[in-house]
Amino acid sequence: MIRISAIMLLVLVTAGAKAQRYTSEKSHVTFFSKAALEDITADNKKANSLMNPSTGDIAFVVPVGEFKFEQALMEEHFNEKYLETEKFPRATFQGKMTGFDAAATQAQKITAKGKLTIHGVTKEVEIPGTIEKKGEKYAAQSEFMVKLEDYKIVIPQLLWQKVAEEVKVTVNFTYVQQ
């Protein structure tokens, strides 16, 4: 079901320019929470992304329940109490890259402007990143902060020293032409 939703979103983003679609061959999404008592990190290698170099359109879908933690209890709390992954199984981004030149041969600093949806809440965001053409592939990286309260993610008062109010999200995609 997640794969079908991801494909539907990604198809909408690139309708019209089939020859220029690139899909993610590899993905790695991480988040890091630095808090007073404990640092928390989690990894996800199940995200999907699509980009169209000729239009600058870009989208990604992250199955939230696929984040892996060092401790099973952290993973359980993340899925059940904070992100409610049964109710909100995926995070998505759909937008357009600015500062991107498809003909460039060196790494480029870009900004992806669009809509980020997490925990059922959609916000307009600007995500900084870099993209580089490497042979027939593109490599894209980004690092940005997500404020939990912006997405109605509530941290119980008892745990405020263990979970940061903002988490750093790192996204890495390697794209191949479809």
Short description, anyone?
With 178 residues, the chain is mainly beta. Helices cover 13% and strands 51% of the residues.
Tell me what the structure shows.
There is one protein chain. The protein has 178 residues and is mainly β. The chain has one domain. Helix content is 13%, strand content 51%. It contains 2 helices and 10 strands, in the order H-E-E-E-E-E-H-E-E-E-E-E. An 8-stranded antiparallel beta barrel has the order 1-3-4-6-7-8-9-10. It is elongated and about 50 Å long. The two termini are 22 Å apart. The mean pLDDT is 88.
Give a count of the beta strands, DSSP E runs of length 2 or more.
10
How large a portion of the residues is in β-strands, by DSSP E? over 45%
Quaternary structure classification? single chain
Instruction: Sum up the overall morphology in one term.
Output: elongated
Low-confidence stretches: none
Order of helices and strands: HEEEEEHEEEEE
- Give the helix proportion (percent range): 10-25%
> What is the terminal separation in angstroms?
22 Å
Given the helix and strand composition, which structural class is it? mainly beta
Mean pLDDT: 88
If you compute it from the alpha carbons, what radius of gyration comes out, rounded to the nearest whole angstrom? 16 Å
Characterize the main sheet. Answer: 8 strands, antiparallel, barrel
Q: Work out the helix count.
A: 2
Q: Give the domain tally.
A: 1
- Largest beta sheet: what is the strand line-up? 1-3-4-6-7-8-9-10
